[in-house]
């Protein structure tokens, strides 16, 4: 007998909002910490800020592997079912690593700006389609 209970879509969306708020708190704490450093270190850290943010994102994503839920889901007592480590890794790559790499690509080579804009548009369209699928089916 399956004892798992399906989480309501509203709870899943609330968990997503909580995750975003937690991520914003971590990023603002990082900004505050950088502002307390001496000016010479601040300049260096400003250049390394995308990598520091990526590290924070990776740390937050590790809870999905070890706890079986994101921080927001843990607060609401919503957990993944059938969400393998491979799915977590693919989700991390698509949600965090690809946008980071695209941003850095534009920073390194300005002539790739137009290509990256098109890729971001395609990603936005895919996110909208995924969101509509989620609302219709109730699963990811």
UniProtKB/TrEMBL annotation:
<keyword id="KW-0653">Protein transport</keyword>
<keyword id="KW-0813">Transport</keyword>
<dbReference type="InterPro" id="IPR006845">
    <property type="entry name" value="Pex_N"/>
</dbReference>
<keyword id="KW-0863">Zinc-finger</keyword>
<dbReference type="GO" id="GO:0015031">
    <property type="term" value="P:protein transport"/>
</dbReference>
<comment type="similarity">
    <text>Belongs to the pex2/pex10/pex12 family.</text>
</comment>
<keyword id="KW-0479">Metal-binding</keyword>
<keyword id="KW-0472">Membrane</keyword>
<feature type="domain" description="Pex N-terminal">
    <location>
        <begin position="19"/>
        <end position="138"/>
    </location>
</feature>
<dbReference type="Pfam" id="PF04757">
    <property type="entry name" value="Pex2_Pex12"/>
</dbReference>
<protein>
    <recommendedName>
        <fullName>Pex N-terminal domain-containing protein</fullName>
    </recommendedName>
</protein>
<comment type="pathway">
    <text>Protein modification; protein ubiquitination.</text>
</comment>
<dbReference type="GO" id="GO:0005778">
    <property type="term" value="C:peroxisomal membrane"/>
</dbReference>
<keyword id="KW-0812">Transmembrane</keyword>
<keyword id="KW-1133">Transmembrane helix</keyword>
<keyword id="KW-0862">Zinc</keyword>
<dbReference type="GO" id="GO:0008270">
    <property type="term" value="F:zinc ion binding"/>
</dbReference>
<keyword id="KW-0576">Peroxisome</keyword>
């Amino acid at each position: 007998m399956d004892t798992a209970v399906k989480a309501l879509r509203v709870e899943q969306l609330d968990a997503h909002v909580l995750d975003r708020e937690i991520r914003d708190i971590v990023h603002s704490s990082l900004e505050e910490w950088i502002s307390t450093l001496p000016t010479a270190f601040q300049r260096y850290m400003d250049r390394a800020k995308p990598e520091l943010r990526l590290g924070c994102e990776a740390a937050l994503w590790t809870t999905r592997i070890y706890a079986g839920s994101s921080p927001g889901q843990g607060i609401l007592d919503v957990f993944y079912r059938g969400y393998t480590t491979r799915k977590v890794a693919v989700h991390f790559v698509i949600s965090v690593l690809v946008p980071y790499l695209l941003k850095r690509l534009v920073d390194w080579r300005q002539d790739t700006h137009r290509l990256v804009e098109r890729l971001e548009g395609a990603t936005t369209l895919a996110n909208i389609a995924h969101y509509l699928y989620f609302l219709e089916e109730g699963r990811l």
